[in-house]
Design a protein that fits this description.
The chain is α+β, with helices and mostly antiparallel strands and 148 residues long. The protein folds into 2 domains: 1-49; 52-147, Immunoglobulin-like (Sandwich). It is built from 2 helices and 8 strands; from the N terminus they run H-E-H-E-E-E-E-E-E-E. Strand 7 (130-137) and strand 8 (140-147) form a beta hairpin. The longest helix is centred in the N-terminal third of the chain and has 48 residues, at 2-49. The radius of gyration is 28 Å and the shape is rod-shaped. The termini are far apart. The relative contact order is 0.17. InterPro entries: Flagellin_arc-type. It comes from Halobacterium litoreum. Keywords: Cell projection, Cilium, Flagellum. It holds the Pfam family Flagellin_arch-type. This is Flagellar protein G.
């Protein structure tokens, strides 16, 4: 009878050890998933708060393109402030990514909600005709079609 009790005790201890190692592995996996969801929620929150509009007048092509520089007025219509930094804004002109971009705040000291920045893309060579400029800020994509 004692041999049955000792073998049962050994199986019970082995079961506890296996359960503890499985629980430790599961806890680690759940923690990594929780961290990933937390990081993603910050990104989604930033995308939700970001909204911009291109307010340049497409009928006034001379104010948009002057023979080498493309200038767009972009208004922050979202609920959060944005950095007036070229790394925040992507500019695509007629399907070509523009790398030489500068920003300057027009009506204030920062690009807060309701403020406008002047986005200047230098070294842009456009022929006469219809063109398309795309501005992307934190996933928010705005398009301006104009004629030179």
């Amino acid at each position: 009878m004692a041999s049955v009790s000792s073998s049962t005790l050994i199986i019970f201890i082995a079961s506890i050890l296996v359960a503890a190692s499985v629980a430790g592995t599961m806890t680690n996996g759940v923690q990594r998933l929780s961290d990933a969801l937390g990081d993603r929620s910050v990104d989604v929150s930033q995308e939700i708060q970001t909204d911009v509009e291109i307010i340049s007048d497409s009928a006034s092509s001379s104010s948009i393109y002057d023979g080498g520089n493309l200038t767009l007025l972009v208004k922050n219509t979202g609920s959060g402030g944005l950095a007036a930094d070229p790394s925040v804004v992507d500019v695509i002109v007629d399907g070509t990514y523009v790398t030489n971009v500068s920003l300057s705040v027009v009506d204030g000291s920062s690009w807060g909600p309701g403020n406008v920045v002047r986005v200047t893309a230098s070294g842009v060579d456009l022929s006469s005709g219809d063109h398309r400029a795309v501005v992307i800020v934190h996933g928010d994509r705005e398009v301006l079609e104009f004629r030179t």
